Amino acid sequence: MNNTMSKSPVQVRIGGEAGQGVILAGVMLASAAMEDGRKVAQSARYGAAVRGGEATADLVISDTPIDYPHVEIPDILVVFSQQTYDRFAPPRTEDTKVFYDPFFVTPSKTSGGSLREISATEMAIERFGKSTSSNLIVLGFIAQLTGVVSEASLNAAIEQNLPSRHRAVGLEALAMGKKAALEVGG
Amino acid sequence: MTGRERVIEAPEVLVQGNVAVAEAAIAVGCRFFGGYPITPSSEIMVRMAELLRAGDGVFIQMEDELASICAVIGASWSGAKSMTATSGPGLSLMQEALGYAYFTETPLVLVDIQRAGPATGQATHVGQGDMMQFRYGSHGDVFPVALVPWSVQECYDLTIRAFNLSEKFRIPVFLAADEAVGHLRENVVLHRNFEVVDRVKKGAGDPFGSPLRDGVPVMPSFGDGGHLMVTGSTHDARGFRKVDDPEIHDALVTRLMRKTLDHVDEIVEIEEHMLDDAEVAFFAYGVSARSALAAVKRLRSKGVKAGLLRALTIWPFPEKQVTQLGAKVKAIVVPELNKGMIAGVARGFTGTPVHAFTQTNGKIIEPERLVKFVEELP
Amino acid sequence: MTRDMNKYLREGLSGTRFCPGCGHGILMGAILRAVDRLGIAMEDLLFVSGIGCAAWIPSPNIGTDTLHTLHGRALAFATGAKLVNPKLTTIVASGDGDLTSIGGNHLIHSARRNLDVTVICANNLIYGMTGGQTASTTPVGARTSTDPDGNNFRPFDICNLVMASGARYAARFPVTRPNQLIDAIEKALRIKGFTFVEAVSPCPTQFGRRNSTAEISALYDSVDSLCISKAEAQTMDEDERLRHFVVGEFEP
Ligand SMILES: Cc1ncc(C[n+]2csc(CCOP(=O)(O)OP(=O)(O)O)c2C)c(N)n1
Ligand code: SF4
Ligand SMILES: [Mg+2]
After folding, report:
1. Distance between CA A68 and CA B292 in Å, rounded?
2. C41: domain CATH number?
3. Quick one: which atom of ligand 1 is closest to the CA of C137?
4. Residue B157 — φ and ψ, nearest 5°?
5. Reduced to 3 states, what is the DSSP secondary structure of residue B369?
6. The domains spanning B2-198 and B273-375 adopt the same CATH topology
7. Does ipTM exceed 0.90?
8. Among A97, A118, B28, B300, which is least packed by CB within 10 angstroms?
């Protein structure tokens, strides 16, 4: 499964509810991809309200300049809400790798593409007492399984995008995601 | 630093288009920002607040957009390069003062991050519906300059160009951006590799007149001892109100027009993509030009000879280039996030069929839709 | 003008454009005398005005930097000009309609921010320039071109309004009492921060004609006789007070 990085462009979509860290996850992934020396186009769609409502982060990663900057067909789809799962999966192509958090999403059996669950919310609550770093656990997980960004760059993205008081937790969350990925294997 | 071959003087960074606008403004010497919050432009004002307060500039959040643009004009006359940023509803409120800035030859930059209108519309979703407001929003004859970025890098580069043009020609300049570009994060180089143009503050001649038909007068600042008379009423070269003199009014309106129109070759920037042997061409601007470029490549791979003419300057309109394009291709497609505003303008400059591809759903245009549209052209 | 105020007038000027007997001309003299007393250098003075007869007091008449702006927006323009060049003694001189109706929001916000400007409001109780329409300062019962049977709405007490919004100083005097008016302008200019002087400035052409009299001296007498002190005001009920001009200084 560790072949995504060589593909260009790679299209990643992360969906969930506003307030779940969906957009931050998109920015971190973009930051890591840039650190890997690639071109990125990262965007977000959300409603007018600051909290609640659907939020989607799109990321295109490429070795050449990116024309269309939004995601057309995701290669990687991460969903933190049933609503975004229902909307974006089953994907239009069998090649899409879908990652979901079972705390929020019950996948239908007819989904195309490969389907992977990652209990990030549960893991975050268990380890940190709250769900806020679940987005980073997922990033550690998908980076390990897909190679979409390198581990070093993802760690660097934590340094660049999180205030210093959150960095230790951030790095640990990434590591938890990676470990979970190694356990399920790719 | 793995995988980077390009030698660049400044590192690539990941920033949002709106933030790139603010960084560019500071880099080119903007020292005043007055604004009022509005989605999807607010990141510009927040970043300007940080940057101006950290340096020697002035940031002020005004009580509304009427006040914002007026404060910007006042600041410009006190000698500071000045800017505001807004979105459609705010742009509507600013129109009277924009006409004032044009008529008093006040340099300033107005950044509009277009959202889906009319009215409050969809505040967080993209549109390109202000294209005519840039051109015709003010009452009376105005000949504005509007630049359209299609990327975060161009948010940076065209903001710099907007300031330079505005200082050179003493004219308000629009950065006609949109939500998709304003909120996009991309690799960008916040370089210092550019020329900075400053208004001419001292020199021969009066501050509101020129012997040349397209002349740009000197612009002293308040406090320089020039006893300036700035007025939005018709005025003579010194600034005296001349509200009944037909010749003076006509001469002023005409000179201001020529400042823009006699310099179209300098002001208008376009970019050509795969037009050499093209039989069908997109004429596009802003984020929609990215959809068009993606479509061109797909059409080419299917054997369709497609190309793209991209406008980086939309006002003054690239008339000559559209006429030349029409002479070369069999059909022109104008994709835009409004009901065909620029397509309608383009039709005036070519006899070749101009097809409007319009989309007003708050999303950018998927390239596949353009591919299909071209394939189905008559 | 006995002292030489001509030095403050703009070179190349050919007379002012006010109607005979317009209070705005007297107010202009009062402003210049206050400036003269303070000895402010011409290069350091900026006058900003909106649109209206009153907005023509500084522009083009006064030979300093003048910024003649849009209707209602003088204070917004002044904000940018002053913040960029704090050295400029900035005087906003404009009409009651300009400053309190179309520009009312800028007035209260400039006071709230304590913008360091002095605002001189030429209050002629009406829209002079556009033909005598009702203003937000027109007294109840006064006749205007849009309320020929008398205005029904209560006028702003502008000094109160700006003081409530945070002004450091406000004063109201009629142009019939020029010495008090000059003193007030001088004091306002001395105080740092947002200061405000309301000059009751009769408009014979549009207000006088429709109300008391178009005869200039009679109009001036009637305006002056309506001026009362704060102490006198306290003896009146609200309706009666609203028909008068409470003159004096208002300090926080
Ligand atoms: C946006 C706008 N609306 C209306 C006008 C028309 N107008 C010009 S002056 C004026 C009233 C001025 O009244 P005031 O400020 O009291 O000054 P005065 O003439 O009474 O001294 C109006 C309504 C304008 N110039 N601009
Ligand atoms: S109309 Fe009234 S305010 Fe205007 S100049 Fe004449 S008298 Fe003065
Ligand atoms: Mg008036």
Report:
1. 8
2. 3.40.50.970
3. 16
4. -65, -40
5. helix
6. yes
7. yes
8. B300
Q: What is the dihedral of CA C118, C122, C127, C128, to 10 degrees?
A: -130
DSSP string, C66-88: EEE--TT-HHHHHHHHHHH-TTS
* Buried/exposed C91-123: b ≥16 CB within 10 Å, e otherwise: bbbbbbbbbbbbbbbbbbbbbebebbbbbbbbb
Please answer whether residues A140 and A133 qualify as being in contact, where contact means their C-beta atoms are separated by less than 8 angstroms: no
Domain ranges of chain B: 2-198, 273-375
Report all structural domains of chain A as residue ranges with CATH numbers, in order of start: 10-183 (3.40.920.10)
- The structure tokens listed for C104 are 């009312």
C-alpha to C-alpha distances, C221 to C21, C30, C213, nearest whole angstrom: 13, 19, 10
Predicted confidence (pLDDT) per residue in A47-74, tens digit:
766 556 899 999 999 999 999 999 999 9
**What confidence score (pLDDT) does residue B361 get?**
97
Rg (CA), chain B: 21
What is the model's pLDDT at position A21?
93
In angstroms, how far is the first alpha carbon of chain B from the final one?
51
Rg value, chain C, Cα: 17
Q: What residue numbers bound the domain in which C244 lies? A: 17-250
Q: Which residues of A touch B187 (CB under 8 A)?
A: 34, 39-40
Q: Give tens-digit pLDDT for C49-92.
A: 999 999 999 999 999 999 999 999 999 999 999 999 999 999 99
The tens digit of pLDDT for each residue in C162-195 reads 999 999 999 999 999 999 999 999 999 999 999 9
B18/A contact by beta carbon, under 8 A = no
* B74-111 pLDDT tens trace: 999 999 999 999 999 999 999 999 999 999 999 999 99
Model pTM?
Answer: 0.96
Identify which ligand lies nearest to the alpha carbon of C125. Answer: 3
Query: Does domain B273-375 fall into CATH 3.40.50.1370?
Result: no
Reported as type and span, the H/E element at residue C102 is none
Q: Band the pLDDT of C214: cuts 50, 70, 90.
A: low
Look at residue C11 and tell me if it is in a domain. no
- The pLDDT of residue A6: 63
Under CATH, which architecture does the B2-198 domain have? 3-Layer(aba) Sandwich (3.40)
Please report whether residue C25 resides in a domain. Answer: yes
Contacts of A67 in chain B (CB under 8 A): 290-291, 293-294, 297, 367
- Domains identified in chain C, total number: 1
How many Å apart are CA B271 and CA C189, to the nearest integer? 56
Instruction: Say what the pLDDT of residue C1 is.
Output: 44
β-pair partners for C227: C245
Pull the structure tokens for residue C106: 């800028």
Report chain A residues whose CB lies below 8 A from the CB of B364: 68-70
Chain segment B260-287, per-residue pLDDT in tens: 999 999 999 999 999 999 999 999 999 9
Token pair 């549960």 is found at: A122
pLDDT in tens, B286-343: 999 999 999 999 999 999 999 999 999 999 999 999 999 999 999 999 999 999 999 9
Q: Do A99 and A33 contact (CB within 8 A), yes or no? A: no
- Which of A37, A48, A67 is the closest to B3 by Cβ? A37
Please check whether residue C8 lies inside any domain of the structure.
Answer: no
Q: Out of A36, A44, A72, name the one closest to residue B183 (CB).
A: A44
Distance from the alpha carbon of residue C209 to the mean position of ligand 1, in angstroms:
19
Distance, in Å, from the CA atom of A89 to the CA atom of A107, rounded to the nearest integer, reads 9
Tell me, yes or no, if A37 comes closer than 8 A to chain B by beta carbon.
yes
Q: B291–A68: do the CB atoms touch at under 8 Å?
A: yes
Q: Which of B85, B203, B75, B148 is nearest to B314 (CA)?
A: B148
Ligand with smallest separation from the Cα of C50:
1
Return the structure tokens found at A180: 């979970």
Position C10 in a domain: no
